[in-house]
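name: query_chain
kind: protein
chains: 1
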Amino acid sequence: MARMDALSFIIVFLGLTAAVRAHNAAHFASRSSDGFAWSEARPLPTDNIRTAVNLAQISPSEALVWTRCYEDRECARLKVPLDYTNLQDASASIALIRIRAKVSHDSPRYRGPVLVNPGGPGESGVDFVRSVYGDLISVILGPEFDIVGFDPRGIARSTPAVSFFRSRAERALWFPGFTGQSLNASTDSRARTWAQGTLLGQLAGERDFDGSLKFINTENTARDILRIVEAYGRQKLMYWGFSYGTVLGATFAAMFPDKVERLVIDGVVDSEDWHAADWTHVFVDANRAWQSFADGCVAVGPSRCPFYASTTEELFSSVDAIQARLRKRPIPVHSTTEYGLVDFSLLRATIFQSLYSPYVMFPQLAHALAGMTEGDGTALFELHAKYGRKPFECACGEDEQDYSNIEAVWAVFCNDATRIPSDYDAFVKDYQSILAVSPFGDLATLKAGCLAWPDYPKASFRGPFTANTSFPLLIIGNTADPVTPLSGARNMSKGFMDSVLLTQDSAGHCSVSAPSLCTQKHVRAYFQEGELPPPGTVCDIDVEMFPSHTDDANLRVPSQQKVFHVPNRRSRTAQLSAEDIQLLDALRELATRVPRQQMFTF
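structure:
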């Protein structure tokens, strides 16, 4: 539930090229206070590690057999039961990748693996850790941990993979018309989405040729995680889950409360609402995030915000006027590299995506909206192309192949959720209840895919999400997260004894959408020392929403250091330790990595 508190994040994390990773490795080559560099320039240990090019070349096994892959990572495939009620039946294969700790596994300083999940549902944890995201997570947590990503069952490189389509081309032709439209774009938008969603569910049932689809759910993935932990030779889980990954983390904690060593859920979906398919309040904090755009623009003036207006009311009126014009007449755009139409749905989608990563996208959005007031849609179209769906390209090998099977989003959600009424009137009533809470409810199309979903038996565990875990959870929520409202984090914290809610005072989806030394030093202390922040902790962020054009002007030192007025970066960071500077650089880099989105989920 994208706001379902999260469901947010849909977010597709693409593996970056070796050149990008090499650039970032050089940029962050400084050493931490314990003398260990996080840079990829440090060779990986070679003990017991075989070599392969990619995951497609690795055979699954019941033990974790790590193989060198993707130049500087290690990969494995773990065989797990497809059906945990029938362990002798068919198996599934879970694709894993890791960045090995910079200390030896034999060292007393080695702390073990931290599993990460980027959300979706449907996002690839392999792509996440393969990319620079994995390196930056390693910087946050420290060199003593393996950073482990995995593709949940049914998703990306794990098998059997969910697929309703005969080819990638068929998938690419289907989804833009279904997931790319606002439910308020035209008089027939809701009816078309209802019809398309009905067809999607019918395809799911008709093309479930091997009978595996009903086993793709959160409960089974939580059991897979336990298998990963055990195959690693560990007794308990260390985990950091974002967006939908918080549903997965909360499910594991509730099912296996004695198996928790460290567990962070960040950008929290209310798991009770997730299973109830209740999206009524998913977008409630999206309004606050959008308000922050207007407030920030008005506050900084036209020199920093080209869409400046003297009041927020005037600014929103200008946006309304742009939307009204696009309803009547889309704008054709033909730039040197792109062409297409800027219409109402594209504008709505681009505005909403900016709420996920506001400290990167808001300045660009302001420029694009300023162009729209003059009838020029080029900047808006290019912004959408930059962060939206990746253009379809033929696959010419494993490294080039697009592993995103977007239909896996529905496999997980529709199998988890209570049965959704299939009739059109119920669909419209549900839409109106969401729209009454937030105008961004017009982008809530995910539930439509469940209207004609096969009537599979539901998982045996669907809550309650309450437990006295073997170690308390750390729960993180932003004050203005567009899809996982802070209320979800509060609700989930109530269910887990002694858990602590850390609030980050920022717009954006999940804590990593804005750099905050305060937040991430608490995360590091939690994993390294088992230290929880005091209850009621609220962390500020270290960036301005609309920075000036001076060098590094968007870097701001925490207020207690009172050095905001110093204009250059060296002076502003003079009171930070070398380790904090390295961490802050990593957080700034992490926040700039706006994920492409196939659709708006968690």
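note: The domain at 18-160+216-279+464-542 is CATH 3.40.50.1820 (Rossmann fold).
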